[in-house]
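Question: Send over one sample?
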Amino acid sequence: MTVLRIYTTLGCHLCEQMEALVTMLARGGLGFEHIEIAEDEALMARYATRIPVLLDEQGREVLEGNVSPEAVANWLEARGLLDEAAWSELNARGSDRDGREAQAFEERTGRRMLGRRD
């Protein structure tokens, strides 16, 4: 199993969204090691304004911040890990009735949530 590191902190909604998006679009076999930055001054200095920051198994920073589904899909595809069916399903949500492009995240009760309820 491939284990990715994610620099995060308690209550980081962007961190939760990134992890959910990577999990949704990846072909199985991915795990996450969560690294809490709040307890380390050096990590806070480096990552506080950038989280979430995702590192691959070689320790390279590959994604950070509020990433788009396209950015996640492109990174997974380049590594041969993209679940094409999941990506197609996400894209099939395609457009709203008025023709606007659908968002992978929707606002619900003041929070941005992964996926859409149609």
User: Anything to note?
Assistant: The radius of gyration is 15 Å. The chain has one domain: 2-114.
